[in-house]
Amino acid sequence: MSLIATGTTYLVEVRLRAEFADAAGLAALAQLQHAGFAAARSVRVSSLYAVCGLLNQSHVQQAAKELLSDGVTQEFKLLSGAPVLDGMNHWRVEVWLKSTMTDAVGESVRRAMAELGLPEPERVRCGTAYRVLGRTTRNVLERAVRRTLVNPVIQTFTVTEAYD
Amino acid sequence: MTDLAPLRQAQPVEEGLRFTTLPPKDLRNLSAKFGWSLSDVELEDIRAHFKKVGREPTRGEAETIAQTWSEHCKHKTFNGPIRYSDGKKSRLFKSLFAETIVKATKDLSKPWCLSVFKDNAGIVAFGKSGRWALAVKVETHNHPCAIEPYGGAETGIGGVIRDVLGAGLGAKPVLNTDTFCLAYPDYAGPLPEGSLQPGRTLRGVVAGVRDYGNRMGIPTAGGGLWFDDDYRLNPLVFCGTVGVLPAWAVRKSVKPGDLVVAVGGPTGRDGLHGATFSSAAMAGRSDRAAVQIGHPLNEKRVLDALLVARDRKLYRAVTDCGAGGFSSAVGELAKECGACAGGALVELEKAPLKCSDLEPWEIWLSESQERMVLAVPAKGFAELERLFRAEGTNCTVIGEFTGSGRLVVTHKGVKVADLDMGFLHDGMPKVERRAVWSDGARPKTRPPAAYARGAGAGHADRGRLSGILTRMLAHPNVCSREWVIRQYDHEVQAGTVIKPLQGLRHDGPGDACVIWPVAATSEWNDRSGFAVGHGLNPSYGKLDPYWMAMCCADEALRNLLCVGADVSKASFLDNFCWASPEAPEQLGGLVRAALGCHDAAKGYGVPFISGKDSLYNQSRDEKGRELGIPGTLLITAVAPVPDITQAVTLDFKGPGNSLILVGVTKGETGGSLLGQMEGEGGEVPKPDPKAAGKAFRGVAAAIAKKLVLSSHDLSEGGLGTALAEMAFSGEFGASLELDQALTSPPMLSDETILFSESPSRVLLEVSPKDDLAVMRCLKGVPARRIGSTTANPVIKVSGLDGSIVLESHLVDIKAAWQRTLPELLK
Amino acid sequence: MTPARQPRTSGRPKVLVLRAPGTNCDVETALAFKAVGGEPELVSIADFKSAKVRLMEFAVIAIPGGFSYGDDVAAGKILANQVKLYMREIRNFVRLGRPVIGICNGFQALVKSGLLPFSAAGEQTASFTGNDSGRFEARWVHIRLNTQSMCLWTQGLPEMIELPVAHGEGKLVLKSPRHLEELKKNKSIALQYVSDDGKLLGYPHNPNGSVFNIAGLTNPEGNCLGLMPHPERFTTRHHHPNWTRQTFMKEGVGLEMFRNAVRYCQS
Predict the structure, then answer these.
(1) Residue B456 or C224, more confident
(2) Where are the beta strands (DSSP E) in B149-264?
(3) How many CB pairs (< 8 A) connect B and C?
(4) Can you tell me the distance from the alpha carbon of B86 to that of B78, in angstroms, rounded to the nearest whole number?
(5) Is the pLDDT of residue C3 over 50?
(6) How far C90 CA lies from chain B's nearest CA (Å)?
(7) Chains that touch C (3 or more CB pairs under 8 A)
(8) C-beta atoms surrounding C135 within 10 Å
(9) How far, CA to CA in Å, does B455 sit from each of B473, B671, B728, C225?
(10) Under a CB-based contact definition with an 8 Å cutoff, are residues C165 and C229 in contact?
């Protein structure tokens, strides 16, 4: 697998439907509060998949529906461009493994997509998005994230003031 | 393969650079630049070697030598000469390891030691049939865990599992253990840039062991936790694995002409000591360490395919790719060539890669995880390949073993290395180190940093001693480990017959787990099992590492004894973690500990079968001062449980039973929990192996006669915590009379009798009708009936003057014991 | 039962123990079947892909626990897709009344491939999310069996049993409350997590927060069972955490479940 991809990259976000409790989100919330972001009110976690290869949108749509998401508990969407900015106190933290790190899940997804009869992607990387609600400043949030959810040794992350 | 086209000229270390004529200063700079950490003497030796050969070394050769000669691979300190002085006597060790630990094993010459100190793991006989053996290995993964706890712990446990897979012809792992030494999770003091808060480190390493061990389908059912703020920059993470292999598969061999086969994951730029990457992205100290996260699925694939291949006898030898990657794996296997000179020819372009831009020497030295190397007779390769491919993992021929005595590595016809095996493995110059131990300079009663944060369970207990007991049970070094243990699948393989958590509500602190490895043997009617116990107490080591070693050995054995294992057939593993051995005082402590290991092995009649050391565990703190860890020794003991249905747990089984205390209680509160909490001093506990051995035999005899209802060893917090743990685990109370305890000197305070940590003691619960029979088993052993269990859920202790000095409700003390970790890790 | 529903078994019914990369309770599950007179065979899912193995030759199918494909994406998800793709006959196998059991990861795969809760359409109506505690947990739990259920695996067992669970994504959820009513009506809720006195209580008695404390589901006919607890880890009394306290137990109740299936095939 080459690190330099030649195909198109699609970004899929898979999240738990709002009616289901998000245990991972609650755990992240407690940690963020403990790490100095006391005003955090809720965190919801979703999975991100960056799928790159000679694929078209409907291939990725099919993979998202049949492999990456659960029909009962989750919903998914293909992301394009920056998330919608819609106001105060809504944050989005995206965490990705550095490109030099082995991505075991990505590898499984790559193989499993081929088994669904789809073109095998050149590479799949997995990430996590935390949708955080709470009044704070970017600095406080970034510091809290660095202390809890992210290790810059193996991961990169972005914080955007956005929610959708 | 042997008909190679003539090789093109090898690449020198660096374009236009002449290693053999470089001035010493430039040579040193070169070593620093490439991160070789070779000493001046070593560099000169390499220079001399290549002068003799008459050519320049290649980059691949220099890297291979640097790797092979590293402290990590060669254990220079332990194997090298040390001049030791303790103020009165001095002694020259040619090799500390050979003259202490190995010597004891040799002297003992126990028949169950099938393979010691030479393979990836120690191998001992197992079971009654003679058909099986156990491979046992414990090692540390400290530095990566300091930087990235989750990935570090994952790759640590992954590595030790591969060690056991690569022991003999491969053992099926049936148990993992993990022991962590960390700063208190609520440490809130200053930390230097890049150091993680200890609570986060603890969460991370637990999650790493959990996610890797659980996915491998190996129960993690033993280990420990120790907190001391001096571990804040250098946490210690010990991972252990026990595997079962058939007795016929203990020996490896390699024949010239066998294929060098790499199996498992692809090779990437992982774990290279890479200041060398020219890439601009490299910045900061942490990036250079190139920590990886694990890929347990790949390792599981290797495990499953490998064991089938082993039973079909498709390969002759196997080893794992650890430090040094292919270079050390192939190098080690090439040495197995028996009578012939050994050697190998490797063609690196054949290795499956993660990324295409690797330099040939990087492929050769990469430490990518989840890879192993096999020596495969050519005719079986096709079948082997089918097996691994069916599991969905790689199986690739990357070369051939030869009888040439040379390690030849090529990449697309260009020579990467061509080294003499003899020089590579035995050519390393020995450097003498100096070690001093000055007993007088050490504060006898150094007050250890008291654990004050969150101290005081805050509820009014009757009497001072009751308060101490409650605080002891709530102390992080004693409290319930349930928060950790429940996250590990400690029952997968359906062989954990004595679980780490025991008692009425499955939450008491068992002394050890007992494993019935039926998933490995498939012998449903064979009730043979084994137990694994641990001894670790850096607090004693601060007073005297020699007695720390003795106490650790004693405790590890007592853990086994208390679950019903046969400690007369036990084996030890040692794991030393120390600060820099270049400081003579540090090395002095290390020598003391090694001497303690020797004397413990001889004294208890228990051989060491494997071990590891991790030195240089020190870092600069936030003010730039060097902070070293307390000298730490983990002794792991493994012993057979001949019939698992005879095993014993610690929980009280009923009211009205006798409590028998085996062993003598002394005023040994030095380094004890009481000492730490109350700031008191005292003597470091000093076991007497001869007396202890006799007591252990007596207890074992009583257990074998099914006379013992429950048993528990006395460790941190002494009699008080042991009694409390047995009581709340079984939900029966107890009443105790301290004047019945055998003490030396005869008069000790109530407090000392309750909380002294004198070694070699166990507390037994015995039906009153069996009192006499048990005392007969304990003939000649200091043992006394000191009380009885009660239906009333209270422990009540009457002191020397007959008055009640301690009265605690089980509900309260259990709550205090259980609350600590969940609160610290909230 | 008509003979056509069962393959001919000469005493020892053939049990398919399904393996995939990452499966890790296969050996002990096979041992349990063997101990009660079954003839287990470990078969890799890849063998169905290459059509090397025929499903209908087996009398029993067991999908054991573990982390198939590392539980990457979600627990049991990739295996569920493969079961749908390469083991199409399994629906027919269930319809014919042959015993099927999915344990832990196997249960997750049965649910995510739409085999449980069983419906004619094969639509997935239940799923699993992370435990409420947010962590993987291994512990012994009390289970109440549904005495009304047709489940052949649990016939004759005491109403209250104990078994260990060990999972991180074990919280069973249903697509809608309507599905819960349906499950109740069809007597498909075979096992529930309860307290030691039989009450439907929360954590830790319900170790993961499953809806209505559901620990195991069966099809209405009772031949296909999926459960989160591990019966293969309670096949001798020495597996019980308290065997050193209790002397009255004969053998593990888990073994009885496997014996029920083997006997069913033999009858």
Answers:
(1) C224
(2) 172-182, 220-227, 236-246, 259-264
(3) 111
(4) 18
(5) no
(6) 22
(7) A, B
(8) 16
(9) 11, 18, 21, 50
(10) yes
pLDDT (tens digit per residue) in C79-136: 999 999 999 999 999 999 999 999 999 999 999 999 999 988 889 999 999 999 999 9
Query: Is A2 within a domain?
Result: no
Strand-strand pairing, B571-577 and B632-641: antiparallel
Chain centre distance of CA B610: 10
Which two tokens mark B202? 């603890």
Smallest Cα distance from A71 to chain C, Å: 7
CATH number, domain with residue B282? 3.90.650.10
Q: Is residue A77 part of a domain?
A: yes
Q: What is the pLDDT of residue B15?
A: 58
Question: Quick one: tokens of B655?
Answer: 């009211």
Rounded to an integer, what distance in angstroms lies between the CA atom of residue B518 and that of residue A43? 45
How distant is the alpha carbon of residue B387 from its chain centre?
Answer: 32
Q: What is the pLDDT of residues B511-536, one digit of tens each?
A: 999 999 999 999 989 999 999 999 99
- CATH number for A127: 3.30.1280.10
Q: Is C179 annotated in the active site?
A: no
Distance CA B633, CA B537 (A): 8
At B474, the pLDDT band (50, 70, 90 cuts) reads: very high
Q: Which of B75, B141, B598, B712 is catalytic?
A: B141
Range of the domain at B322: 257-402
Residue C10 has pLDDT above 70, yes or no: no
Q: What is the 3-state secondary structure (H, E, C) of B494-529?
A: HCEEECCEECCCCCEECCCEEECCHHHHCCCCCCCE
Q: Which residue of B has its CA nearest to C167?
A: B489
Q: Whose structure tokens read 């009398």? A: C59
pLDDT tens digits, one per residue of B729-775: 999 999 999 999 999 988 899 999 999 999 999 999 999 999 999 99
User: Which of B:648-667 have CB within 8 Å of C?
Assistant: 648-649, 651, 653
B779 within 8 A of B662, measured Cβ to Cβ? no
Q: Tally the domains of chain A.
A: 1
Helix (H) or strand (E) holding B373: strand B371-376
**Catalytic member of C25, C39, C151, C232:** C232
Mean pLDDT of B714-718: 96
pLDDT tens by residue, A76-116: 999 875 555 555 788 999 999 988 888 999 999 999 999 99
Q: Rounded CA gap, A86 and A108, in Å?
A: 35
**Is B374 within the bounds of a domain?**
yes
Among all residues of chain B, which has the CA nearest to that of A105? B295
Asked if residue A1 belongs to a domain, the reply is no
Is the pLDDT score of A156 beyond 80? yes
Average pLDDT, chain B: 90
Give the total number of structural domains in chain B: 1
More confidently predicted of B15 and A149:
A149
Q: Does B767 touch chain C (CB under 8 A)?
A: no
- In order of their start, the domains of chain C are 11-266 (3.40.50.880)
DSSP-assigned letter for residue B739: G
Nearest by CB: A104 against B197, B295, B392? B295
Does the annotation mark B72 as catalytic? Answer: yes
Task: Provide the shortest C-alpha distance from residue C84 to chain B (in Å).
Answer: 20
In this complex, do C82 and A72 lie within 8 Å of one another by their Cβ atoms? no
* CA–CA distance, B340 with B309 (Å, rounded to integer): 26
Number of neighbouring beta carbons within 10 Å of residue B169 = 25
> Using 50, 70 and 90 to split pLDDT, how confident is the model at B329?
very high
CA distance C262 to A53: 49
Complex prediction ipTM: 0.95
> Of C25, C104, C151, C265, which is the active-site residue?
C104
Q: Across the interface, do C133 and A73 touch by the CB < 8 Å criterion?
A: no
B701 contacts chain C (CB < 8 A): no
Above pLDDT 70, what percent of chain B?
A: 93
Please report all neighbours of B, defined by 3+ CB atom pairs within 8 A.
A, C
Q: Which domain holds residue A65?
A: 8-160
